[in-house]
Amino acid sequence: MLPTVRRVSDYEWIFGEARRWYDGAGSIVIKRNDLAAVTATDLARALRKEREDEVEPEPVLIDHAPDDQYEPKESIVEPISFVLTDDGHLAVNISFEGNEYLDNDDQLQAVVTPLIKPLLQRNRADLISLSVDGYRSSAPYFHTAVLGIPTRGKTLQHLYDTAESVVTLLEAATSGEVTRQTVIDLILGGRADLLIGQREGPWLDVKAQHYDFSNGGGQISLTQAISRFGNAEEGGAVVVGMETKKVPGGESIKSLKPVPLDGNILRRYRQVLENRLFPFPTGLKIDAVSTSPGSGLVVVSIPPQDEELKPFLVHGAIVDGRVEGAFISIVRRSGEDSIPITAQQIHSTLAAGRALLRRGQLPKI
Asked: Residue 137's pLDDT band (boundaries 50, 70, 90)?
């Protein structure tokens, strides 16, 4: 049985059943539809043979053009390529964009490693190396990383998919860390799976099930969650449809657990917040993202709010497990926990407002 990739002349290779050539600079250029037809072990073996023949193999590049177009010497290639490491293993080279200037590889390592570690662990992959962009003097900077991904029994498509997930996560987090907007962008872009392994925190709250709006307790719980983020510095997001697990110091996202969606789900969430939250936050958004017919995720996001709008008040409270509809509750976020605003803090806020009124300065509401 013929290998899935082989060299047939000084200029020509066979990938699957397709003939592929060099780009004029020593790299083989293949197409996206070649990936599923070629095993990773066959490519590694072919590149090692090149090295044994004293020809140091260049990266195998992937043409970005449509599959029916193939001009190797004029190709615009993808940020993902296949390389042979010094010890003869097939690895994946990725290029990713960053907006922050970094002096050296150690700084890049400190930024990137915590971000992609959960994703690599989930795919049993390793970060072999990182290289900072040393050629550009202004943003965007194009850094590179080399990933070691298991190859036994895998096609190039499997390695590509893992590398593409890493690139997607890194480019969504151009600031170097996952932010509220990163979470929203990944979920709305259909890549909520990349958040598995990320922790809940001061701006992220994850729920496995819909809030129960048939009673006041569920309505108050949602409203308090949004109120906490409104009263915090960074804003935040509540994501419904993800399961968490306990980890040291808090919880992390364990898996996707899509919840039922229907045509009225966004209206119900918004109606609860409009009825129970005052004032209504500026820029609050509620989105539903389908993951399969009739189910998906709900994302309620609130950007940082002007201090003049704070504190956000919740009409209703849960006292000793009972819903007290006549009460007003005020809560704020502290790490992964929520704590009530104290009477002293409420009094100081009211006193500051009264002082402004006496000076004829009115806050914007």
From this structure: confident
